[in-house]
Amino acid sequence: MHTMHGILKLTGISCLLLLCVQFIRAQVPPPDMVLVHGGKFKMGSVHGGSDEMPVHPVVLDDFYIGRFEVMQFQWRLIMDKDTNKFYFEGCDSCPAERVSWNNVQEYIIKLNEKTGMNYRLPTEAEWEFAARGGLLSKGFKYSGSNTDTAVGWKVGNSGSGTHPAGCKKPNELGIYDMTGNVSEWCADWYVASWYQVSPVLNPVGPFEGVFRVMRGGSWFYDHSGLTVTDRESANPTYRYGYVGFRLCRSAVIREQEPRKPPTRANDSTEKIKTYLKKLGL
Predict the structure, then answer these.
(1) What single DSSP character describes residue 179?
(2) CATH for 33-278?
(3) pLDDT digits (tens, 9 = 90+) for 144-197
(4) Which long-range contacts (CB under 8 A, 24 or more apart) does 260-266 make?
(5) Among positive and negative, which fits the CA dihedral 214, 258, 198, 133?
(6) If 0-12 CB within 10 Å is exposed, 13-18 middle and 19+ buried, where does residue 56 land?
(7) Long-range contacts of 192-195 (CB under 8 A, 24+ apart)
(8) The whole model's pTM is what?
(9) Which of 32, 62, 97, 169 has the most CB atoms in a 10 Å sphere around its CB?
(10) Torsional class of 107: left (φ above 0), alpha (ψ -120 to 50), beta (otherwise)
């Protein structure tokens, strides 16, 4: 009888703990993600800068990417102890900016702990494939149109600032603001000549570098920096008023993951924590 009572008690405690975990996770609304079916595409351009060449084949697995850039209210839900203010403070549905690449890694670690998911930054190849419209691509110059103002906030229509997410036309996959509003951090280190040696299958970028890749252009870019192939770079420790990010996560578990440097966003949480500790974050 005592044994049965003990089992029932332990079962009750277990159920209570499970409910508590589910309640905690429920406090963080899941980001709106779009499934991007993988496939083969030609990455790069012969019409852009030298770092966009050569055009080369890339094959990607399925993945999910954020329908919108991460917004200010989403950042605050996770980073409630972050005392740095946004450059365009007070617009909850505007993209979070003034967040460094390193800050974003901290955000992702905490988000994954709260949700039990495995969010990360997109690789540069995943970002470009999604911006092009994936397998539904119509070959637009910008993400969803050949007219930059139809899909993005830029010099001339932004009013020198960010705008709430999703106010412009989406691209072929239903993804918003991959042109303009804020530039977006990618997981990769930036190396100008990387396309000359990039592997075909699920490339993850160079193993080391000084700057990180950012894509998409922002509210103070003109048309030349807004194309789906344009590559930019920035210091991963700096907070810029024109750089934000969107989330990504893998849709499949690969049998054999390619080797990655210990600083990547999709490595294990412990490796990222160790890296951030070295940076004093």
Answers:
(1) S
(2) 3.90.1580.10
(3) 999 999 999 999 999 999 999 999 999 999 999 999 999 999 999 999 999 999
(4) 260/204, 260/207, 261/189, 261/207, 261/208, 264/120, 264/187, 264/204, 265/104, 265/105, 265/108, 265/120, 265/121, 265/187, 266/118, 266/120, 266/121, 266/187
(5) negative
(6) middle
(7) 192/50, 192/51, 193/51, 194/51, 195/43, 195/44, 195/51, 195/52, 195/53, 195/54, 195/56
(8) 0.82
(9) 97
(10) alpha
Please tell me the distance from the alpha carbon of residue 247 to that of residue 165, in angstroms, as a whole number.
14
61-90 pLDDT, tens digit each: 999 999 999 999 999 999 999 999 999 999
Using a 10 angstrom Cβ sphere, with 0-12 exposed, 13-18 middle and 19 or more buried, the burial of residue 133 is buried
Return the amino acid letter for 237: T
Domain ranges of the chain: 1-30, 33-278
- Give the CA distances from residue 238 to residues 187, 231, 241, in Å, rounded to whole numbers and listed in that order: 15, 18, 10
